[in-house]
Design brief:
The chain has 2 domains: about 30 residues, no CATH class; about 55 residues, no CATH class. The protein contains 4 helices and no strands. It starts with 5 loop residues before the first helix and ends in a 17-residue tail after the last helix. By secondary structure, the chain is mainly α.
């Protein structure tokens, strides 16, 4: 991780001291296994959109967060199984 350019790691979660939070990355990696890549990309875009709205608009925070939860839990975005995606046929 330390050898990657700053641009490649700027989006990663950080600890208070500014270093990358490896624990949260490990947890995310464990759970990401159950989703398709397109689902994860859509979820990240929904989170980015919500973050931009939270910091740049005067919209109600609860409304923005509810909207992103609805997007994340929408019918096409839920993994829907406890099986890893590779074992589903």
């Amino acid at each position: 991780m330390n050898r990657l350019p700053a641009k490649a790691t700027e989006h990663l979660p950080r600890k208070k001291d500014g270093s990358v939070n490896a624990y949260s990355l490990a947890i995310a990696a464990q759970h990401a296994y159950y989703f398709e890549t397109t689902q994860l990309v859509e979820a990240m875009r929904a989170c980015l959109d919500a973050n931009v709205k939270l910091v740049t608009t005067q919209l109600d925070h609860e409304l923005i967060l509810t909207e992103v939860v609805v997007k994340l839990l929408g019918q096409n975005n839920v993994g829907g199984t406890s099986e890893p995606r590779q074992s589903r046929h």
